[in-house]
Design goal:
The structure is a homodimer of 239-residue chains.
Chain A: H1 4-12, H2 16-22, E1 24-28, H3 30-37, E2 43-48, E3 59-61, H4 64-70, E4 79-84, E5 96-100, H5 106-118, E6 123-127, H6 136-142, E7 150-154, H7 156-162, E8 167-176, E9 186-190, H8 199-202, E10 207-210, H9 225-238
Chain lengths: 239, 239
């Protein structure tokens, strides 16, 4: 049974300020919830139409109509869980670090987190203008990768000023990545969907790289930032 | 002014069967509409809150409230246009052909069309189970690339049976793409989001390729199909 206070809490977690206040975030879908239950994350509450056979004090059985009422999805998927937001670990800077300069679209950030997981990028560093990684739409797109990537929100200018790693950035006018010698350790900066890398960050970039266009002159003016990140991370890793 | 019959037509175009019946599709947003007006597509009607200074018989000035009523977007963007669905050109098979086996997500298809445009892929061949490329969500994600890629919906098994090009396919267990010799001319098959390439198509693949995973064993089990397509097309083109 869903109480009014449950509904109020869940609905509030759609907003970043309440996620920060309660230090909680929402996850939907049986598969992702099961993956997160096996991670080091701490479950706060599970609302489900079918029992997960976990410690009963955290599990609340609900009806499909109740799930529909609390779900953020058009087609709710059997369960919704609340997890505690984990503490941020310090940035290791041991290998390749991905830095995001004001990525706004939750789907893009979710896809990029999944790419970090695939390519073994331990540290994802986001400017404070980047969409919150505990936004439900981001969580939906990460498919559980959120537990395996260390995500920090920092003053990106300060971070890049302090790092000893070489700084690469994606720019339309950069050198083609296919013929650039890429290091194992470094920072790759990806810019905002509409405006690219900001002026303050651009001056800190050591090497501008780009993905060549093969279509005719009229072809699309840019790639989506998540697909561009996919290609660039692949280039760094392929050696 | 919006008449009831306009509203009825626009609303119906959300559904594939009415798009086919009328041979019309919807485009939203000033930037994309302007791009399409400069293409070989034929405008059927333009509903806009600010005049585009085009032939007045096709332009209907509306209020923001009216736009909100007909828009498919949460935040409507000043204009909505109806264009005629162009005739499909025959498949050239002159270079690299991308084939999609039952891609279901409109955002993924839109991103893939934009990738084809970027990488100069002229022919995109879709199985009949693939989401319709004139779906409003696909159009939204293509950013105008829809006019520069020749998209055909075919019996994919039949098409692959008949082509003389070498057929490559993305498979988890495939040979790493980084060490595979890739031809300039060929077909690359990408499979469905949940199930990958279907059994009937798998037997027609000459060479299975994959993108290696660099994260630890627990890392995400797969990449999103649009990001995987980005990496593979980049590999075919980088030479």
């Amino acid at each position: 049974m869903l109480s009014k206070s449950h509904i109020k809490l869940i609905t509030s977690l759609k907003q970043k300020k309440y996620r920060l206040q309660h230090s909680l975030f929402i996850v939907e879908g049986v598969k992702t919830i099961k993956e997160l239950l096996q991670s080091e994350l701490t479950l706060y509450a599970l609302y489900t139409t079918e029992s997960f056979n976990i410690d009963a004090k955290n599990e609340i059985l609900i009806t499909e109509a109740e799930l529909k009422r609390i779900s953020f999805l058009t087609t709710p998927n059997k369960a919704l869980a609340i997890f505690k937001i984990p503490e941020v670990k310090s940035i290791e800077q041991g290998g390749l670090v991905l830095a995001l300069d004001a990525i706004r679209d939750p789907g893009n950030l979710g896809t990029i987190i999944r790419l970090c997981d695939w390519f073994g990028i331990k540290d994802l560093v986001c400017s404070k203008e980047t969409v919150d990684c505990f936004n439900p739409k981001v969580i939906q797109a990460t498919m559980g990768s959120i537990t395996r990537v260390n995500i920090s929100y920092v003053d990106l200018e300060l971070f890049l000023n302090k790092t000893s790693l070489p700084i690469y950035g994606a720019f339309m006018e950069g050198e083609t990545v296919y013929s650039t010698q890429l290091p194992e350790k470094g920072v790759l900066v990806m810019g905002n969907e509409a405006n690219g890398v900001s002026k303050e960050i651009e001056v800190l970039i050591k090497k501008k790289i780009s993905i060549p266009k093969f279509g005719d002159l009229q072809a699309t003016e840019s790639l989506n930032v998540a697909t561009a990140t996919a290609i660039l991370l692949s280039e760094f890793r392929r050696g």
